[in-house]
Amino acid sequence: MNFQRHFVRWGAGVLLVVTGGVGGYLLGHRGMTPMEPPKAVSAPATPHDRPVLYWYDPMKPDQHFHKPGKSPFMDMDLVPMYAEDTGRAPDSGVLIDPRLLQNTGVKYAAVAKGTLDRTLRVAGTLAFDDRLVTVIQARTAGWVEKVYDWSPGDILAAGDALVDMRVPEWYGAQAEYLALRKAGETELADAARMRLLQLGMTEGQVKEVDARGMPQAVLTITVPRGGVLQELGVRAGMTLLPGQTLARINGIGSVWLNAEVPEALSDGLTVGQPVRATLTAWPGQVFTGRIAALLPVLEPTTRTLQVRIEWPNPGGRLRPGMYAQVDLKPSQATPRLLVPADAVIATGHRRVVIVAGQDGHFMPAEVTTGREAGGQMEVLSGLQEGERVVVSGEFLIDSEASLKGVLARMEKAGAAR
After folding, report:
1. What is the pLDDT of residue 250?
2. Domain 93-113+334-416: assigned CATH number
3. What are the strands of the beta sheet with 133-137, ordered from one edge?
């Protein structure tokens, strides 16, 4: 009997549980329960509620960590990488925490129009003015009786004696001229005198024959114009042939300053532009002049253009071979967009700048650059006036962009075009 009572109680309990569960299901399914608790209202997601893929150090973005903390590389906190920050399109840029930007000292510069300060400082060397070269040659055959005590490098003045020559043809022409003059044959005497000049005698030598009244067997060859004796090609006792060079003299009344300008910087140079130069021999003294010529041939080994400046040289203080620092001022070009040269990142195939947007957004922009001077660089395409570019701290933004594949997709997009 006790066994039957326990079995009946156990069965009733099971039936009660089953009945309650079914009833609760029916009531809940029909929405008829009067005691249903109010549903919880979900709060908007905060930045910390976004799913984090991993943490990383901006200085070493290729190293990933599974939890926040201090970076083992730098004295800074690890930065989270959120899931929605990956897989962006190239033109959506990259978002960086403003606090991180402030801590790393990112600086910006505005894109503005202007012209570069194109003052060029190049090296130059003084050289002889080749327009002042004098070549002394024998007009007729003869031989050298005496060579005066000169050697190459000596400075000669106009009228200095160079060599004494014996020229038989000159002697016979002198005798003929004197005989005609003595005979009163004026017209024939004038023709004979002209013949002496045509044979190579100077006006001074002919006057000396007139004064002496007798032919001169040995005549002295003098220097027609002063300068540096570059070449002396005769010795006493030498036989000379017509056209043989006796000496070569380079005048020093003016000198050339030859400046070497790199090929890439030669645009804008024109004849007549002002030039300033300082010489090592006279520190602090400024010499001014103008460009006399731009040589038409580029030096193939140094890839430089030679600029020639002519300077007067009274007193001969400017000596060929002296070194100079030359300041050139090429003509100003059309104003263009300018950015600091530090803002341009060379990737190897192209040049990129980081454009700063709003609320910590940054976008890499491919640019075409022109000249560079004074820390500024011309931008020919890729930017607009008024945009802001990153000047310092590009390493942080570049690492973020590389980490999120922005620059890589930009490279692929450029290759596809």
Report:
1. 95
2. 2.40.420.20
3. 133-137, 245-250, 227-232, 155-156
